[in-house]
Amino acid sequence: MNNKGFKSGFVSIIGRPNVGKSTFLNRVIGQKIAIMSDKPQTTRNKIQGVYTENEAQIVFIDTPGIHKPKHKLGDFMMKIAQNTLKEVDIIMFMVNAVEGWGRGDEFIIEKLKQTNTPVFLVVNKIDQVHPDELLLFIDKYRSLYDFKEIVPISALEGNNVETLLETLKKYLPEGPQYYPADQVTDHPERFIIAELIREKVLHLTREEIPHSIAVGIDAIQKRESGNAVYVNATIIVERDSQKGIVIGKQGSMLKEVGKRARVDIEALLGSKVFLELWVKVQKDWRNKASQLRDLGFREDEY
After folding, report:
1. Alpha-carbon torsion (99, 101, 102, 108), positive or negative
2. 138 in Cβ contact with 150 (< 8 Å)
3. Among 17-26, 190-199, 211-220, 275-284, which is the least confidently predicted range?
4. Taking the CA atoms of the chain, what radius of gyration do you get in angstroms?
5. What's the pTM?
6. pLDDT in tens, 29-55
7. Which domains are delineated in the chain?
8. How far apart are CA 17 and CA 25, in angstroms?
9. Less crowded by CB within 10 Å, the N or C end of the chain?
């Protein structure tokens, strides 16, 4: 489909960890495709959210939060975030009005100076700060970079999100509809299911399990008798102590993770789901290239 006047393009959402990128993406797309957690660095891969309406299609790319890498996985996440800047029509640099200016922002602005792509400053969480503070906050960023647009929003409350979408559309080129109107992401279901399970572990274990977990999907089967989908997944941790935490007393934590993940997976697949979870220790998996590859982190794709 290539209607005359139809606009389409790719928009990268970039920013320090935990500024609300995934919350924004989920708000705009209306489905849970990016995991949300109050822990930084929960997004590890490019998650594309596709927003389609009659006159335009915007493909959002949610990058890993930019931070100083501490291990091979961190290097990989940084590489994705930086490469994304070269591939898109617009860059949305999202900042968190509550946390204020940080050295990570300085690092990102240096990266932005190396690109010719139009950059929007999107100030999130405006519902949590006084308007006077907000103006000072915006002035600080404006003095450091010539942003094409500055749009304050609240991704959680939905404030000004429509305005942002309208402004993005003005900058998009005319182009084809890349995805069918009812498609909201280009990630395979397997990837999203793994992310939903990982989100539940992060929510439920709080500080005890940091980023040293991954989820591998062993099997997704639809059996001929009935419409149910059977999912087998393995939660991978780095230490035996973490395994104990994820399983919980008499399996209580793992059971709760499974219960909550199943609700989201059923909503995603539109059918009844039987979810079986295992927990496995793979020491120091984040620094082992072969294990990163097995879990779907392949550098050559980016």
Report:
1. positive
2. yes
3. 211-220
4. 20
5. 0.61
6. 876 665 554 554 444 446 578 898 889
7. 7-171 (3.40.50.300), 189-301 (3.30.300.20)
8. 15
9. N
pLDDT tens string 189-215: 777 788 889 889 988 987 777 666 888
Q: Strand 273-281 relative to strand 229-237: parallel, antiparallel, unpaired?
A: parallel
